Amino acid sequence: MRVFGRGAAVAAVLLALSGCSVIPGLGPDGPYPDDDLTFVVPYGPGGSTDPVSRKFAAELEKELGVEVVVENREGGSATIGTSRIVKSPPDGYTIGLTSNSACCYQPLLTDALPYSSTADYQPLVKLADLPTILAVRADAPWRNIEQFMDDARRRPGQITVSNSGARTVNDLTVAQLNQVGKVDLTRVPFSGGGGEALTALLAGEVDANAGYAPSFTEHVKAGKVRILGVFRDGTYDAAPDAESFPQAGYDVTLPASYYVIAPRGIPADVLATLQAAADRAVRTPAFAQFAEDEGYVTEHLTPDQITAELDGFTAEFQRINAALGE
């Protein structure tokens, strides 16, 4: 029998006193949830995914009435943490974040993962998209996209660009830029995620970083980092003064997309409770404001729509892989 966690016990008392209701499911050991949840993040602290994961977890706590404990499990281009979610007991107490590259691209590279398609895990909710940003230190010689690309053509292989992991979306974005722009930027992946990749830029270990707005914001404000361009059509509200790579003639727009998933096989009543709570969490004014402030582009999809989107990303990554010859 599951023992109540501290958060669940406190929340139960508060809910009873306030008259609020959290509609429970019915797990094998009684009403769900009756204990705290673990929310796995497959990246380290300091990157673009940690803030949105913690904000979502905080909103989900309010919806479920129990604590949602964030656990960072970085490494393997997000496959270590994603595998941890997929292999967890299907009881509704371990869920987590994953990305389109971890779910859809990494399985194209290896058969060693415990998942290969959307049939192997349960989508709960989509959190957001993030366009990739190319940033440099404030003292870098390049002031715009064309200066950077011209220098890259003059010095093939000599300009280094860090990213959050091999074959992640920001790594693939630079690979596509190499192809479209006929340059040879050296991609430098960091297994610890975007925080580690950005630290390398700030320390002068690399020339540029392909990352995301939530990681750059404070460093741009502090005058340490300059954004050269965004891999997105049109203006990006999080970096309104930045150039658009497609508008500069480099048609590369693959976004990083983030989802909350759970293991397959969760009891139907528990799954319904979890999916409904997750959907309410991303629709709260607090989450919406956070996403807008930090540069996350939100989109509300049903679990079936998420499955279709992820299947579409798998097909797109297959095309990208064939085009890149990697």
Write a structural description.
41% of the residues lie in helices and 20% in strands. It has 326 residues and is an alpha/beta fold. It folds into two domains: 6-130 and 256-324, Bordetella uptake gene, domain 1 (D-Maltodextrin-Binding Protein, domain 2, 3-Layer(aba) Sandwich); 133-244, Periplasmic binding protein-like II (D-Maltodextrin-Binding Protein, domain 2), CATH 3.40.190.10. The strands form three sheets. A six-stranded mixed sheet has the order 9-8-10-7-11-12, sandwiched between helices. The chain has a five-stranded mixed sheet with strand order 4-3-5-13-6. The protein starts with 5 loop residues before the first helix and ends with a helix. 48% of the residues are buried. Residues 6-23 have low confidence and may be disordered.
Summarize the helices and strands and which ones pair or pack:
Layout: H1 6-18, E1 25-27, E2 30-32, E3 37-41, H2 49-64, E4 68-72, H3 79-86, E5 94-99, H4 100-109, E6 121-130, E7 133-137, H5 145-154, E8 160-163, H6 169-181, E9 186-189, H7 194-202, E10 208-211, H8 213-221, E11 225-230, E12 243-244, E13 256-263, H9 268-282, H10 285-294, H11 303-324
Parallel strand pairs: 3-4, 3-5, 8-9, 8-10, 11-12
Antiparallel strand pairs: 1-2, 5-13, 6-13, 7-10, 7-11
Helix pairs in contact: 2-9, 2-10, 4-11
